[in-house]
Every structure is written in structure tokens, then in C-alpha cells.
Amino acid sequence: MKIYAGNRITLLKNGAAFFPALVAAIDAAVQDVRFETYIFENDVAGQAIADALCRAVQRGVEVRLLIDGFGSLKTPEAFFAAMQAAGVKLLFYRPLRGKWFPTRHRMRRAHRKIVLFDGKVGFIGGLNIIDDFTENLSTTHPRYDYAVMVEGPVLSAIYDSVFRMWRGVKWFTNLRQQHGGSVPPISVQPIGDSPLAFVSRDNVKHRRNIEQEYRAAISNATAEVLIASSYFLPGHRLRQTLIAAAMGGVKVEIL
Predict the structure, then answer these.
(1) Which residues pair with 155 in a beta bridge?
(2) Which of 11, 76, 88, 91 has its CB 3.0 to 4.6 Å from that of 83, i.e. a possible disulfide?
(3) What is the pLDDT of residue 64?
(4) Of residues 126, 127, 130, the one with CA closest to residue 43
(5) Which residues make beta-bridge pairs with 125?
(6) Phi-psi region of 249 (alpha: psi -120 to 50; beta: other; left: phi over 0)
(7) Cα 150 to Cα 166: distance, rounded to the nearest angstrom
(8) End-to-end alpha-carbon separation of the chain, Å?
(9) Homologous superfamily of the 4-200 domain (CATH)
(10) 43 burial via Cβ count (<10 Å: 0-12, 13-18, 19+)
């Protein structure tokens, strides 16, 4: 795992902080927007972001949007067609066509939520493009999630991963004749004091990359481990690592 020094990160809580910051960044883009998400809903938040992407295209900004074919299955096709008609370059990761049934292979999805701007700013985290209260049982308590805004040298690793993902999806969707484009110049000058790494996984050679880094961090903890996650289905090795940490005197809390 490569550590990049000199970064700046800003924590964004829930869509209330994330969506306005995202729209502002889209409106400020001058060259390039690269966008990956699992869910892109056509609610108030989604429409505001779609409108901002279309405005960016009108300014001459190249906008590439990669959406998971299952996560956004319920979003009307007309919503995405309008963005494509405006000039947004749109791809679906493993779209579901015709009659289908869930299998282990089909349910390998693209869950990443990453947005990059001009080689200078990136957003990454757990937030999909869906309003905090959409499909929520409560009208007073929002969905709880976070994203971070990242600036600095670590963007070079994130851009490389997003570029390779776009190129790979195009290959699998028989768009080999379209050039993958180029990565814009990345701002590698130190801009803060945060050391960061970008860790990604796939279902081929890097299946356990993230798990390995979690286990290493847990094993190196001396006082406390706090895990907050919507989905918690740890494998045997991760469970044993947590147990070993707790038995070694580390305070382990799971939310």
C-alpha cells in the first residue's frame, strides 16, 4: 500500500453536506468530471446533480458517468437518456437485460462512489446519489453516511483506478472502438498535512486488498478499534483478527 503525503481531507456528513458541495464542484469544473456511483436516483438530490452535470457539458467540460446496472435499476431510463442527450458520456456497469435471476456472478456489482474534478479535487465515500430521506421509514431522521473531499497527491492513484474502470467497462460493453481518453494532469503538489492511501479491490487479482489493510490496521491497534458499517459480514480471518485484538486488551466496538 502506497502512502501519499501532503493531502487535505474534508469530512462531509450525509447528503445535507455532500450534495451541495458536489454541485458546487461540478459547477466549478473547467475540464473534466469523472463520476462513479452505485445508485443514481431521480429524486430532488439526483435531479440537482444531473442538472449540474448537463450545465458542465454545456461549458465544454467532458463528463463521464459510470452507474451500476443493478443499483440504479429502478431509476427511469428517460432520466439517464436526458443526460446522454445533453452530452454526458454514460456507461452502465453490467446492465441487466431481459429476464434475469440473481446469481453470485450477476451480483458482483460496482459499489464505488467516486467523483473527480480537473485532477485537483475528489469526493469518495459511502453516499449514493439518493436523498437522505428517500425510502426511509422516518421523516425526521435521515440516512446516516459520510463522504470525504480529497485534495492532493493521492488523487493520482484514484484517477488511475477510475480511468482503468471506465476503460474496462467500455471493453466489456463492446465499445472498443471508442478511445478511453486520457487522465488530466494531476495536482501532485502537497496541499495539506494528511498522509493518505487509496486501496481498491476487484474480483480478480486484488480480491482481498481492502480486507488485508483492515486486518493490518486492527492488528497494529494498541488502544481502540471502532467499526461503523451498514453491512457487517466478516470472514473467518477478519473475525479472528478482531477477537485477537479484543483479547489483547484493545477496546473493539462495532456499530
Answers:
(1) none
(2) 88
(3) 97
(4) 130
(5) 147
(6) left
(7) 21
(8) 27
(9) Endonuclease Chain A (3.30.870.10)
(10) middle
Burial, 82: exposed, middle or buried (Cβ in 10 Å; 0-12, 13-18, 19+)?
A: middle
Strands 4-13 and 224-227: unpaired
Q: Quote the cell numbers at residue 5.
A: 503525503
Residue type at position 108: R
Write the pLDDT tens digit of every residue in 206-253: 778 899 999 999 999 999 999 999 889 999 999 999 999 999 999 999
Residue 80 C-alpha cell reads as 439517464
Give every residue of the chain whose pLDDT is below 70, as ranges: 97-107, 134-140, 172-185, 187, 203-204
For residue range 177-187, what is the model confidence (pLDDT) as tens digits?
454 556 666 76
Q: Helix 44-58 to helix 14-28 angle, to the nearest 10 degrees?
A: 10
As to burial, measured by CB atoms within 10 angstroms (0-12 exposed, 13-18 middle, 19+ buried), residue 149 is: buried
| Grid cell at residue 66 | 459510470
Domain range list for the chain: 4-200, 205-255
pLDDT of residue 136: 58
Model-level pTM greater than 0.90?
Answer: no
Three-class secondary structure of residue 90 per DSSP: strand
